[in-house]
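Tutorial handout. Part one gives the primary structure; part two gives the three-dimensional structure as tokens.
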Amino acid sequence: MGSIQKFCDAMRWAANSDQVGYSQTDRDSLRPNDFFGNGLYNTDCSKLTIVALQYAGFETGWASYTGNISDALCANGWQRLSPWSDRQPGDILLNDANHVAVWLGDCLAQASIDENGNIAGGARGDQTGSEVNTCGFYNYPWNCILRHTGSSDYSGAPSGCSAGSGAPSGGTVGCCWQGDMVGRRDTTGSGDDYAGVPGRPILNIAMDGVGEYQVSDTIHGDFWPKVNHYDLNDPENGYAGDDRPIDRVRIFDPTVSYQLHEIYGDWYPVMQGTHDTGGSSDDFAGEKGVQFDLFRAWRDDGEQPRYNVYS
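Part two.
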């Protein structure tokens, strides 16, 4: 009989270890007997979940990718529940077309993206600390929760388990503010020219020195009220967002250039205030219903904006 405890422990190990990286073309290099081993491996979101289940003793049937994992597991002792059901350790959060993650009781574990910001290629092992990672709960959006119908033997995280390299800086499991950017300079010293974590959706944005700004989220589909402050402790007026994945950002100052990067995709065209340099008539960065993981803003001349993202 399968063990929810072993399933969660395996997922947490993969997320916290630097031994497991992301690649769809090399996804089969991680096998059930590789968990807690010493090698270097690659996987993707669905294959990680499947082999972790196999390691933990669960029958996975014909499950082989995101599109058939629901049918295969539901034929082998799992049930499909509303994505808004109360979460339990070992629940599999599924977007039928695009993504799988596992709820560990205190965080999600998932395989996200390779070290180059792509879904194919990349060296074995986690080169960035976030190819396979843990994060706080977010709505991808999920179509369902898959839950095993048997009793759970889960008793908590294994002794000594920590957030590890897959967690945001500071060592805490879950979403957090990622550190100030000033223009395209990362003040945390990472060398990146953007704010955000590859593969992890941006939920909130705080900006200073840009005047009024606003965002839209993938759930409501409407722009939130304008804000013009930077205060990470003030969810009403200090930043834009509502802890849901952001799909669009609008800055009104024409001297500010800014961009969003689509999860598993590319950078969208540069916006200059409400002018899209890509030639569209949109007055915002992004696209309705699409999730983004990276953001950057700058001025070609003058004082650089300060900004931060929560992801």
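Part three, for discussion. Helices lie at 4-16, 45-55, 69-74. Confidence is low (pLDDT under 50) at residues 159-174.
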